[in-house]
Design brief:
This protein is mainly α. 66% of the residues lie in helices and 3% in strands. The chain has two domains: 115 residues, no CATH class; 226 residues, no CATH class. A hairpin with a 4-residue loop joins strand 2 and strand 3.
């Protein structure tokens, strides 16, 4: 004998996922709730446990999970389209199909938000770092930053022998980055990084097609790093992904955490990697502002001046990095960059891919170390 639920309960049950999606959406509108109840409790302790377990697996499972999910997604889309075609032929109503579609979307939304997405809506870490972050920067400000980074690049590069660079490995930089966070946590306990879970990408060539250097996999709490990247870029990339593992979802915030971690350490490889990236951000931001003003003479002056000020070894290092990416620039799948740009916009980063450069706003609020 089957038990039939009251109609009111049937309706409530049918729309449970829709209701949960609404509740999660409303909850995410209060940044302090997200910080206190989700990031500092649910996400923090869940990922501690996840990293503690999966971190012992010697290879990255995150890429395989994405491949499996992609196969499932493609299968379900094709199955869905077939059912729609079948129902249209039979002249059946599409209301139920619409309901099922919205329920699946609600389920995906809730699941993504609970395992990672809500971190995009937590409070800014500016208070923790005791910073007042400006909303914009001027061409003069980023010009000054460029000059600071040129000076730092030249100084740090003199401490690094070419033979040391040749001997650097991704494994050694991962260990150095772990220690860097250990040092950083002494000054800022909220940067405490427990249960390391940093893996090498099994399919690095996918990064050329989709356009990533590394990524955080929320299903496994893995920081997955491409092993084929220029070695001098790796340390900053690793520190950036470790910041994501701590719940810093915003790309600018993750960049800033990596930046501060490098400043708090005396590791020349981590510092040099950071300064290479930060100089690139600063110079690109300045040239973009100059381009908007239409002053192309100024553009040429800045580029020539910066090149003249950089040491030959720094220039050579930057040329190797540029050559690596230039050789792969035509491998990108059409639309992949636009999709990622849209993903960032949907997740509270209004500038999309350009949000990475927003780390400069945080840097301007930070006293520079000479």
């Amino acid at each position: 004998m089957s038990i039939r639920l009251p109609k009111s309960l049937q309706i409530a049950s049918a729309y449970t996922w829709h209701a949960l999606a609404v509740l999660v959406f409303v909850f995410g509108k209060n940044a302090q709730w997200v910080q206190d109840l989700y990031t500092d409790r649910v996400f923090k302790w869940f990922t501690y446990g996840l990293r503690g377990v999966i971190g012992h697996i010697p290879f990255a499972i995150g890429e395989w999970l994405y491949i499996i999910l992609l196969i499932i997604l493609i299968y379900n889309i094709l199955h869905f389209l077939f059912k729609i075609k079948s129902k249209i032929k039979k002249g059946l109503m599409m209301g139920r199909m619409f309901y099922k579609t919205t329920r699946v979307l609600a389920m995906l939304y809730v699941f993504f938000q609970m395992i990672w997405g809500l971190n995009y809506q937590k409070t800014s870490p500016a208070q923790d770092f005791e910073l007042k972050v400006p909303l914009s920067y001027t061409e003069s400000q980023v010009d000054s930053l460029s000059l600071v980074y040129i000076s730092q690049l030249n100084a740090v590069r003199t401490q690094i022998l070419d033979t040391q660079i040749d001997q650097l490995t991704l494994d050694s930089l991962i260990e150095q980055s772990k220690y860097a966070y250990l040092v950083g946590a002494r000054a800022y306990p909220f940067l405490t990084y427990l249960h390391p879970n940093i893996k090498k990408a099994y399919f690095p060539s996918l990064g050329d097609k989709i356009g990533y250097l590394a990524f955080y996999q929320p299903l496994s709490s893995e920081a997955i790093i491409r092993p084929d990247l220029p070695i001098l870029t790796q340390a900053f990339t690793i520190c950036h992904e470790m910041a994501h593992q701590l719940g810093y979802a915003s790309e600018a915030e993750a960049n800033f955490v990596a930046y501060r971690t490098a400043l708090l350490n005396d590791n020349v490889f981590i510092q040099y990697s950071m300064y290479l990236q930060m100089f690139t951000y600063a110079q690109e931001a300045q040239l973009m502002l100059i381009a908007k003003s239409g002053n192309y003479n100024r553009w040429e002056v800045v580029v020539k001046r910066n090149k003249a000020l950089l040491s030959p070894k720094v220039i050579a290092d930057r040329q190797k990095i540029k050559a690596f990416f230039k050789a792969r620039q035509n491998k990108r799948l059409p639309g992949s960059e636009k999709m990622y740009d849209q993903f960032l916009i949907w997740n509270q980063q209004s500038k999309g891919i350009e949000s990475y450069n927003d780390v400069l706003l945080w840097v301007l609020a930070t006293p520079q170390r000479n």
